[in-house]
Design a protein that fits this description.
This protein has two helices and 13 strands. It has helices spanning 3-16, 141-146, and strands at 27-28, 34-38, 41-50, 56-67, 73-81, 93-96, 102-109, 115-121, 126-131, 159-165, 180-187, 190-196, 202-210. A hairpin with a 5-residue loop joins strand 3 and strand 4 (56-67). It starts with a helix and ends with a strand.
Length: 213
């Protein structure tokens, strides 16, 4: 199943599961979410939601696809408030970024008590580096500040950096083929990189799973 089809199925499943009044108030802006797919799961990261009082927040939506012996497809959906979680405890090792993207993460310590991470994905011709800690004093402070990253809720608790292609040709997801601001997050054995645009908007998310040693 190709990535475009998976994404389409995810959106159909999500929109089909909403009531007819779901887009009156509050309103979801699914097109602004980061989208990643791995195995039988699709994640919509930081979906903006406008509430009735004109304020907004973000949610994460996970869709899990199951196919029975007759080829019938079903989905389950889970929704949670999206937060920029603290991510200083990265797990070094080999990660599966979706076939054929096998990657290796190295972790170290940097000046000022910051934790650094470096991810390389040879088959995808992709690499990314990041550091924990506040935007002020970050090695990429100028670029992060210009994009308004420091104003994002919880930004000081997220590891920020840059990621992009290591060659002219790449197998990496299209949005990661050029140098992008990225936020790295670790939750258990799951690693995710979220790409941000020049105005601090979420563009896409790439999910990785730590492989057994």
């Amino acid at each position: 199943m190709n990535k475009n089809l998976i994404t389409s199925l995810a959106l159909v499943s999500l929109l089909g599961g909403l009531s007819p009044l779901a887009f009156a108030e509050p309103t979801l802006y699914v097109e602004r979410a980061g989208i990643s797919a791995l195995g039988d799961k699709v994640r919509l990261t930081r979906v903006p939601v406008k509430t009735t009082d004109a304020h907004g927040h973000y949610i994460d939506i996970d869709l899990t696809f199951k196919m029975d012996a007759q080829g019938q497809l079903t989905t389950t959906t889970s929704v949670a408030n999206s937060i920029l979680a603290a991510t200083t405890e990265f797990l070094p090792g080999d990660y599966d970024g979706g076939m054929p993207y096998n990657c290796r993460l190295g972790v170290g310590n940097a000046k000022g008590g910051r934790v650094s991470g470096s991810l390389t994905c040879p088959e995808a011709h992709y690499s990314a580096t990041w550091m924990s800690g506040p935007v002020k004093g970050h090695p990429n402070e100028t670029k992060l500040t210009a994009a308004g990253i420091g104003a994002l809720e919880g930004a000081a608790n997220v590891s920020w950096g840059l990621g992009g292609s290591t060659s002219g040709a790449t197998n990496a997801p299209e949005i990661f083929r050029k140098s992008q601001i990225i936020a790295a997050q670790q939750s258990g054995n799951a690693l995710s990189l979220t790409a941000y645009g020049e105005k601090g908007e979420v563009i896409a998310t790439w999910a990785f799973a730590l492989l057994p040693r």
